[in-house]
Amino acid sequence: MCGIVGFTGRREAQPILLEGLARLEYRGYDSSGLATVNGKLYVRKTVGRIAALRKLLGDHPLKGNSGICHTRWATHGTVTEANAHPHLGGKGEVAVVHNGVIENYDELKRQLEAQGFQFKSQTDTEVIAHLVASLLSDDLVDAVRKALPHLKGTYALAVVSPRFPGIVVGARLGSPLVVGLGDHENFLASDASALGGFAQRVVYLEDRQLCVLTPDKWEICAADRTSADVEVHTLEWDAQDADKAEFEHFMLKEIYEQPEVIRRALAGRLNVAEATAHFDGLNLDARQLGQIDRIIMTACGTSYHAALIGEHLFEQFARIPVEVEYASEFRYRNPPIEKNTIIVGITQSGETADTLAALRESKRKGQRTIGICNVVGSSIAREVDGGVFLHAGPEIGVASTKAFIAQVTVLTLLAVHLGRMRHLSHQAGGRILDELQAMPDILRETLKCHDQVAAIADKYHHATNMLYLGRQYLFPMALEGALTLKEISYNHAEGYPAAEMKHGPIALVDENTPSVFLVPHSSVYDKVMSNLEEIKARGGPIIAIACAADTHVEAKVDDIIHVPSVPEYLQPLVTAIPLQLLAYHIALLRGCDIDKPRNLAKSVTVE
Ligand code: AGP
Question: Which residues partner with 447 through β-bridges?
Answer without folding.
Answer: none
